[in-house]
Amino acid sequence: MAKDSSMLDGTIASIDGAVRSLGLEDDMRQVLVKPWREIQVGMPVRMDDGNVRVFRGYRSQHNAARGPYKGGIRYHPNADLEHVRALGMLMTWKTALADVPFGGAKGGVSVNPRELSTSELNRLTRRYTMSMHHVLGVNRDIVAPDLGTTAQTMAWIMDAYGSIHGHTPGIVTGKPIELGGSLGRTEAPGRGAAIVGFRAIVDSGSTPDESTIAVQGFGAVGAAAARTMFDAGAKVIAVSDVDGAIINTSGLDIPALEQIVSEGGTVSDFNDSDALDNAALLELDCDVLIPAAIEDVITAQNASKVRARIIVEGANRPVTSAADEILVDANHSIVPDILANAGGVIASYFEWAQNIQVFSWELERVNR
Ligand code: NAD
Question: Which helix (H) or strand (E) holds 44?
Answer without folding.
Answer: strand 37-46
